[in-house]
Structure formats: C-alpha cells, structure tokens
C-alpha cells in the first residue's frame, strides 16, 4: 500500500511539475474602454475574459504548458456575433506585456522573445514593401510597367515570407512559436510543402484542431488531384430528388463542374464572363456539358439565382459542404474539368484557362 501511495504521489508530481502561473497585461485604445477582452488558446477555446478598465486589461491564470494564444473582443453583426482578434502571443510562465499597437508581446519569456522577433521582422519587411509600392506610384511609368514592377515586389515579399515561416516551423517544431508559424504557412503552402513540415512537427502540434483540419484538406486535395478519378458527392435535383455527381461525371462526356453559391460575387462574374458564353458555344456538342453544383447555400436561394441569372445548364443543389470536404477546397468558384471516364483533367481553373482547356479537349 505504501509503495502504491508513493507511486501515485510521484505521478501527481510529474503531471503538475510543468504547470505555471502567467499574467498578461496591456493598454487598450480609448474606444475599447469597458469592452470585454477574451483570451483564446491554440484550439480557439475560451481561456479567460477581462474588462478594459482605465485603458488597461489584465489576464491572470495558470496553464499546464505554453501555448499560442490570441486576444480578441466580440462584435455583434448581422446574423450573429464574431470575434475580432487584435493581438497574438505565447502564454508562458511569468508576466507578458503586450504592445497593442504592434499586436504582439513587448516583454515576456524566451518564447515570446522568439515570437516577437519572428513577427516583428515580418512586419518590418511588410512596411518596407509598402514604402516601395508607394514610391512606385510616384514614378512616371506606364501602367503595364508599373503593374509588372508591383507584382515583382509583392511576389518577392511572399516568397521570402514563405521561406521565413517555413524555417520558423522547422526551428520550433515542438513549441508554440512553431504553431504560430504553421498557422500562417498553412494558408500559402502547396500540399507537398505542407506534408514536408507536417512530417516533422511534434505529436502535440499535430493534434491541434486546425492542423488536423488542414492535413485532412491536403489529403483530400491530393486524392482528387489532376489524373485521379472523381469521387462522388450527393445533393439534390431542382425538384428535390436525390442527385449525385456520378449522374453526370464518368458517363462518356467531358464535364465542366462549377462549384458555386448564390451569394458568391466571383461565382456570378465567372458564370457571366466565361460559363454562359461557353455554354452557348458548345450546347449542341454531345461530347461536353457544364454542371453546376451549389455548395454552402440554401436551396431556395440557389433556385432563385438560377432563374434570375439565366443558368441553362444542369444543376445539383443543396450539396452543403460535401463538395468542399471531398475535394479539399475552401473558396469558390471552384471549377474542375472531368474527362469522359471521370478522370480529373483540371481543377481550380478560371477565365481563359477554362476556355482553352475545354477547346483543347474538344479539338
């Protein structure tokens, strides 16, 4: 019994040894007076809340491990409430003083020092790019040359940014600084680049919700990449009966699938500028059809839009999130071209790229 008690005490000591106290303080803008600020962890769970008083705020608590956190406040919007994030930090032992103008820690421990160095450096480079772009506007260049130089400046920044955050992940693959970098990198890396960094981060990081979601998305993109066979999704016909992608794809025709929604401005523009002319050009060609698949939309709103906008091609409606979950996309319109046997010939194509790809297949 005594040995069991000692073992239990040792285990308890081991589990609590890493726990620590922290304090997060900062000054808030005058318009924030009286507002509630919220501290959220790296899974976007609410950790604590505090009211801005006399222009200051303070979070105080304890945690089992250091984590990437965000500070935000809630705002009423049409249809609900959203959280506006106004600062980021690493919750770690000791006192962390926030610089709310820079939206990051001014003082803190080792991890916050790394965090501020990383994102402060990125911010400095971003400011330098803005000055370059402002100076470019003052040059007496023709529009084409100016746009070319602007794109060169912006593309160079994003290439450098991608390298910076990737290196930060590799150097901090088991801590919260790496988590902050991974959040940014997930928005700009290719599926193959994601797999490279995912392979080296710690199990704790892999277990974060956003990492699991991104990895699932990447896997879905790769299994539905060009050259792979289509995967079926379910929705409804206009009359409410069950419909499937397989009712159209893999039936011996080239099928251009437009994943869209009634509320999506870019979807409407792409349909007006590309899909409607394309439909008129090939409507009598038995080798080809366009198929609309309404995603993230209400069935009644989709029906109204189809009639209002004059879409004459077949439609699957009320597909919900099934298409984006299956094919790993997070923005619409997502336009994909499938071959007669259901092979994916192209995905995420727009404008002239659509026209040229269809013409190439039907020549």
Along the chain, the helix and strand elements come as HEEEEEEEEHHHHHHEEEHEHEHEEH
Largest sheet, if any? 5 strands, mixed
Mean pLDDT, to the nearest integer, reads 93
How much of the sequence is in beta strands?
25-35%
Q: What characteristic shape results from the CA principal axes?
A: elongated
Structural class designation: alpha+beta
Radius of gyration: 26 Å
What are the segments in which pLDDT stays under 50 over at least 5 consecutive residues? 1-17
In whole angstroms, the N-to-C terminal distance is: 84 Å
Q: What's the number of helices?
A: 11
DSSP, total strands: 15
Write the layout of secondary structure elements.
Layout: H1 2-16, E1 20-27, E2 36-40, E3 46-51, E4 56-63, E5 67-77, E6 80-91, E7 94-99, E8 104-107, H2 110-138, H3 143-171, H4 176-185, H5 191-198, H6 203-206, H7 209-223, E9 234-236, E10 242-244, E11 254-260, H8 265-282, E12 288-294, H9 299-309, E13 315-316, H10 322-327, E14 334-338, E15 344-347, H11 352-362
Parallel strand pairs: 1-7, 11-12, 12-13
Antiparallel strand pairs: 1-4, 2-3, 2-5, 5-6, 7-8, 9-10, 11-14, 14-15
What does this structure look like?
- The protein is an alpha+beta fold.
- The chain starts with a helix and ends with a helix.
List the main descriptive attributes of the protein structure presented here.
4-stranded mixed beta sheet, 15 strands, 11 helices, alpha+beta, 5-stranded mixed beta sheet, disordered N terminus, elongated, single chain, 363 residues
């Amino acid at each position: 019994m005594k040995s069991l008690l000692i073992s239990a005490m040792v285990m308890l000591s081991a589990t609590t040894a890493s726990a620590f106290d922290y304090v997060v303080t900062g000054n808030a803008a005058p318009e924030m007076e009286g507002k509630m600020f919220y501290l959220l962890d790296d899974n976007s769970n609410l950790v604590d809340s505090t009211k801005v008083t006399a222009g200051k705020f303070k979070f105080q608590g304890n945690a089992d491990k250091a984590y990437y956190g965000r500070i935000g406040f809630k705002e009423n919007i049409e249809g609900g409430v959203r959280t506006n994030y106004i600062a980021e930090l690493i919750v770690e032992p000791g006192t962390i003083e926030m610089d709310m103008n820079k939206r990051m820690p001014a003082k803190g421990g080792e991890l916050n020092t790394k965090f501020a160095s990383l994102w402060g450096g990125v911010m400095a480079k971003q400011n330098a790019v803005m000055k370059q772009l402002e100076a470019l506007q003052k040059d007496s260049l023709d529009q084409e040359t100016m746009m070319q130089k602007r794109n060169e400046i912006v593309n160079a920044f994003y290439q450098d940014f991608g390298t910076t955050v990737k290196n930060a992940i590799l150097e901090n693959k088991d801590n919260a600084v790496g988590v902050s970098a991974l959040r940014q990198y997930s928005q700009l890396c290719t599926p193959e680049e994601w797999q490279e960094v995912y392979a080296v981060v710690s199990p704790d990081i892999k277990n974060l919700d956003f990492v699991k979601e991104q990895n699932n998305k990447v896997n879905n993109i790769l299994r539905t990449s060009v050259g792979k066979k289509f995967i079926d999704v379910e929705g409804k016909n206009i009359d409410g009966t069950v419909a499937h992608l397989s009712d159209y794809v893999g039936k011996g025709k080239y099928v251009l699938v437009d994943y869209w929604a009634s509320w999506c401005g870019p979807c409407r523009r792409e349909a007006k500028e590309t899909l409607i002319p394309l439909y008129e050009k090939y409507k009598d060609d038995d080798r080809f059809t366009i198929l609309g698949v309404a995603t993230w939309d209400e069935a009644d709103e989709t029906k109204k839009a189809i009639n209002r906008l004059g879409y004459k091609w077949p439609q699957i409606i009320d597909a919900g999130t099934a298409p984006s979950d299956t094919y790993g996309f997070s923005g619409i319109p997502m336009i994909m071209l499938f071959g007669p046997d259901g092979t994916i010939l192209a995905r995420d194509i727009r404008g002239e790229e659509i026209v040229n790809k269809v013409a190439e297949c039907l020549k």
